[in-house]
């Protein structure tokens, strides 16, 4: 064979190899987002993508083998707390006989204390990067003082909370490790009714467990994320993937994967009358979750976007339309448009029907909410709406809760309180018969100003948790949200007081 022919063959071979690698890289590019590095495949997927078509026999071993090392067991501990009961004051039965005596008043109306015992719970989580970022549910880790993460190989790490989002029931925690297995993001929009999926987690405190089922519904809202269940919820986002894969307590925060081994949802809830699985389970779509996760990691809080309108939460029946005088129309019925919001600026009006978001059809409120939840303030999207039977497409600039496009920064609880604090002087503590505490040196312009609390008040407990020093106080309120309770005294007075302080999370 001539040298020229040999060189030609070598050239063709090299070109083919380079083209194959480039094509494979392009094919895999969409699978990696956020903290995941494009083109890099974790070791747990070794040898999997060479033959990633679903076999005719529906053998689930390949996706299960790839995914289980990246699903973790989360165990939490909440320490015992001493709580002051905020009960109505009673009149001393001896006051009429002996007059308004402080002794009897203190005897009958002194602080009533109770103990909340130590609590332990468990759930699941999904590793999403080799350096230890983990997705789980907010309800798995909320209020926990200690979080332990155990991998399928029995190795255990201490975890810290990076951030939470009660509105989607998602949380990000992190362990200090490297070279961990992790799951690749899938596209939850591609999930189809009847498609096989696997749920992976640690139910009922068992070892890692895999169950199989099909996608039985999409964009399902079941009303589980709401202020009555969690006071921190302000703008709930529910658009679950419904499956019939068996999910039980402990599965929360675990993985829902497709048969390509890709993460398409975070298991979050079950439909049950007895607390255990009876037929349906619900997962947060990954196309919502990855946006929330990326925001938490990048900004410390979720950058939630709003269209600036109110809408009918459920699809209207013909009878409801007739009663309310609503004309015929498909889509999400707009009940009001907020002045200064993005929808108003784009010309959308009360009585319109939103039919598409960025070209994607929406027929229900959960579908619309799911689409908007993928964007942040400042993003421009197209909205198609129907008015008097005519469809119009317009561009809308999404805004935040206060109708601006600025990035929302996470404020810590001390900033929200808006005061100046210091550890109480030991002499003052001894004189007032307290073990220690934190004195409010100045009431600033935050949440404290909206309460009746006064400067000089010595805080002795936060939400029933005793505080003796400024470090104790900062630790007690570090991740506090919603309403917190400050108990303490004013030096020189024997009466103890409790102040509810509402922290504004939006």
Would you mind describing this structure in some detail?
By secondary structure, the protein is α+β, with helices and mostly antiparallel strands. Among the domains are: 1-30; 61-67 and 185-299, Beta Barrel (Thrombin, subunit H); 309-397, Pdz3 Domain; 413-502, Roll (Pdz3 Domain). Helices cover 20% and strands 31% of the residues. The chain contains twelve helices and 26 strands. The strands form five sheets. Strands 1-4-5-8-7-6 form a six-stranded antiparallel β-barrel. Strands 9-10-11-14-13-12 form a six-stranded antiparallel beta barrel. The protein is globular, with a radius of gyration of 28 Å. The protein starts with a helix and ends with a strand.
Globally, the shape reads: globular
Largest sheet: 6 strands, antiparallel, barrel
Major beta sheet, strand line-up: 1-4-5-8-7-6
CATH architecture of the domain at 61-67 and 185-299: Beta Barrel
Number of strands: 26
Q: Which CATH C-level class of the domain at 61-67 and 185-299 is it?
A: Mainly Beta
In what range is the share of β-strand residues?
A: 25-35%
Task: Produce the secondary structure layout.
Elements: H1 3-29, H2 61-67, E1 71-78, E2 81-85, H3 95-98, H4 102-109, E3 112-116, E4 119-127, E5 133-137, H5 138-141, E6 146-150, E7 156-165, E8 170-175, E9 196-201, E10 209-220, E11 240-243, E12 255-257, E13 263-271, E14 280-285, H6 286-299, E15 309-311, H7 318-324, E16 332-337, H8 342-345, E17 353-357, E18 360-361, H9 365-372, E19 380-387, E20 390-397, H10 413-417, E21 419-423, H11 426-431, E22 438-443, E23 458-462, E24 465-466, H12 470-477, E25 483-489, E26 496-502
Antiparallel strand pairs: 1-4, 1-6, 2-3, 4-5, 5-8, 6-7, 7-8, 9-10, 9-12, 10-11, 11-14, 12-13, 13-14, 15-16, 16-17, 17-18, 17-19, 19-20, 21-22, 22-23, 23-24, 23-25, 25-26
């Amino acid at each position: 064979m001539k040298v020229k022919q040999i060189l030609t063959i070598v050239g063709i071979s090299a070109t083919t190899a380079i083209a194959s690698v480039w094509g494979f890289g392009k094919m895999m590019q969409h699978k990696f987002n956020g903290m995941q590095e494009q083109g890099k495949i974790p070791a747990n997927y070794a040898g999997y993508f060479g033959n990633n078509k679903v076999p005719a026999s529906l053998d689930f071993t390949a996706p299960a083998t790839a995914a289980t090392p990246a699903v973790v067991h989360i165990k939490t501990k909440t320490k015992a707390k001493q709580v002051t009961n905020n009960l109505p004051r009673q009149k001393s039965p001896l006051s009429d006989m002996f007059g308004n005596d402080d002794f009897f008043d203190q005897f009958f109306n002194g602080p009533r204390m109770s103990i909340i015992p130590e609590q332990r719970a468990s759930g699941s989580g999904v590793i999403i990067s080799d350096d230890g970022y983990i997705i789980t549910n907010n309800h798995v880790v909320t209020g926990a003082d200690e979080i332990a993460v155990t991998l399928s190989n029995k190795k255990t790490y201490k975890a810290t909370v990076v951030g939470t989002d009660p509105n989607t029931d998602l949380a990000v925690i992190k362990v200090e490790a490297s070279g961990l297995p992790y799951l690749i993001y899938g596209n939850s929009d591609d999930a189809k009714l009847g498609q096989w999926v696997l749920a992976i987690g640690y139910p009922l405190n068992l070892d890692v467990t895999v169950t199989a089922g099909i996608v039985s519904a999409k964009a399902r809202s079941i009303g589980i994320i709401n202020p009555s269940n969690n006071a921190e919820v302000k703008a709930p986002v529910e658009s679950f993937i419904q499956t019939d894969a068996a999910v039980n307590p402990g599965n929360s925060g675990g993985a829902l994967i497709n048969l390509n081994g890709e993460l398409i949802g975070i298991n979050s809830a079950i439909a049950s009358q007895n607390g255990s699985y009876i037929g349906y389970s619900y997962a947060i779509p990954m196309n919502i979750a990855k946006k929330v996760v990326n925001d938490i990691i990048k900004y410390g809080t979720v950058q939630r976007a709003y269209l600036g309108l109110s809408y009918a939460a459920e699809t209207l029946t013909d009878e409801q339309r007739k009663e309310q005088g609503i004309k015929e129309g498909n889509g999400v019925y707009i009940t009001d448009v907020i002045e200064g919001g993005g929808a108003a600026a784009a010309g959308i009006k009360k009585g319109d029907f939103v039919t598409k978001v960025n070209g994607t059809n929406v027929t229900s409120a959960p579908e619309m909410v799911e689409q908007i939840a993928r964007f942040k303030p400042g993003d421009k999207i197209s909205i198609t709406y129907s008015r008097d039977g005519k469809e119009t497409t317009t561009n809308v600039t999404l805004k935040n809760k206060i109708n601006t496009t600025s990035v929302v920064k996470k404020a810590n609880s001390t900033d929200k309180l808006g005061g100046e604090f210091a550890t109480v002087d030991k002499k003052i503590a001894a004189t007032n018969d307290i073990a220690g505490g934190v004195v409010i040196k100045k009431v600033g312009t935050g949440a404290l100003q909206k309460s009746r609390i006064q400067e000089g008040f010595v805080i002795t407990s936060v939400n029933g948790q005793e505080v003796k020093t400024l470090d104790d106080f900062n630790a007690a309120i570090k991740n506090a949200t919603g309403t917190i309770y400050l108990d303490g005294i004013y030096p020189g007075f024997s009466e103890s007081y409790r102040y509810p302080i509402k922290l504004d999370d939006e």
